[in-house]
Specification:
This protein is mostly helical. The protein has one domain. The chain has five helices and no strands. It is elongated. The protein binds protoporphyrin IX containing FE (2 copies).
Amino acid sequence: MKGVAFNFFVTGAVFVTLGMLWGISMEISGDHTYAGAHAHLNLVGWVTMGLFGLYYSMTPAAAEGGMAKIHYLVSTLGVLVFVPGIVLAIARTTEALAAIGSLIVLASMLIFLWTVFRHGLGRPA
Ligand code: HEM
Ligand code: HEM
């Protein structure tokens, strides 16, 4: 177990690797139908989760608590539900999964807001 900052970075890097492969396959096929899902896999799965990882590596007190583990699980679950949800919404199958996913993504940001207010930023002086 290497800590929550590591988990955020590794998971985010896996998401963006998949996102890049998806982007390349869009380029090759010329079919950009699911660009919005690709975009949010990269932006929520890599940019946002990477920023969370950066925060936890700068703020060890926040990384130690059980809330950080919950934050990691909620963030990861959010991407895993939201991105397939966008695919289904674009395909006009259902919008339900995207709606549920967006609320999980929102929940992860609310946990982050709470964490930043509780622990501040950086190591205590
Ligand atoms: C190998 C890397 C990547 C490739 C080949 C790629 C390819 C693409 C393609 C083909 C589109 C559709 C463009 C369109 O229809 O207008 C797209 C859209 C998009 N990509 Fe990527 N992408 C890559 C990486 C990334 C990364 C790392 C991010 C974000 C951190 C990103 C964010 C976006 C966004 C936001 C859009 C939507 C843009 C719009 O709606 O006009 N992409 N990408
Ligand atoms: C609960 C979370 C989120 C929801 C529900 C959401 C929803 C949406 C929707 C409905 C669109 C318009 C899509 C379209 O017109 O085809 C969009 C576009 C976009 N969003 Fe998000 N978003 C979320 C999170 C984020 C985050 C965290 C970022 C950046 C870090 C982001 C960046 C973008 C960008 C760049 C676009 C324009 C590219 C595109 O059309 O795909 N979004 N988002």
